[in-house]
Amino acid sequence: MTELNTGTDKLLGRVHGPVAVLSFNRPESRNALSDEIYDGFNTALPQVAQRDDIRVLMVTGEGGAFCSGGDVKGFRASHAGEGESMTQEESLDRLRRNQMWISGAFRKLPKPVVAAIPGPAAGAGFSIALAADFRVATESAILVSAFSTIGASGDFGSSWFLPRLIGEAKAKEFMFLSARVSASEALSLGLINRMFADAEFDDAAMAFCDELAARSPIAMRMQKENIQRSFDADVATALDAEATAMVRAMSTADHREAVAAFFDKRTPNYVGR
Known about the structure:
Layout: E1 2-3, E2 11-16, E3 19-24, H1 35-50, E4 56-61, H2 72-79, H3 88-108, E5 113-117, E6 121-122, H4 124-131, E7 134-138, E8 142-144, H5 158-166, H6 168-177, E9 181-182, H7 183-189, E10 194-196, H8 201-213, H9 217-229, H10 235-249, H11 253-264
Parallel strand pairs: 3-4, 4-5, 5-7, 6-8, 7-10
Antiparallel strand pairs: 1-2, 2-3, 8-9
């Protein structure tokens, strides 16, 4: 296992075989977001995208929580006139930038992103988990939008990702009422992909990532692009793009290796070419 540079100890980075792990590290605040964390993602994610030895990204949190979202103590200090003073336009520019550095970057990353949720995911932390391609959680994890409890509307993509996962009416219920969702309910709704026992979570979450990493990285990249395009494209455009990706995928060394492995009854060794 080697370190992955994030430029800060508030976001820990490491590489575990083919899996990069970025972990929120502000356990004293249940991993509330901070400028250091935003900068950390902006430093680390381009590395993850560029490195061929990294095939999957796992995002998790230290100290038994995923991420509690914005720092409510910081909000209170700002309302009291303490800390950095910004105009509304400056605040808007900053939030737009931070959203693209995390949720937008997850969407563009040409590799699967797995949110491994060891405990509470709330507010923007909940939104960031939604931005991942997959979510796995402990049995004791709680997911909650939390925005309405502090008179906020939501950020980091909650209004875009949530209805696509669970439908419009249920998404509105979650957002308007800040409903607390258990891991078992989230699993039944399709909000998370897997639920693991608390004591087994670390190993099980990594095993899930390793299973993804064993697949063809080229095929997964193209599948991610195809699925994401489908929300905005008409069927003719989607079919054309899908056909283009299929022909390209079947011209790769990975495809030839997969066919050979199928007939040899062995596990394929993908090289990403």
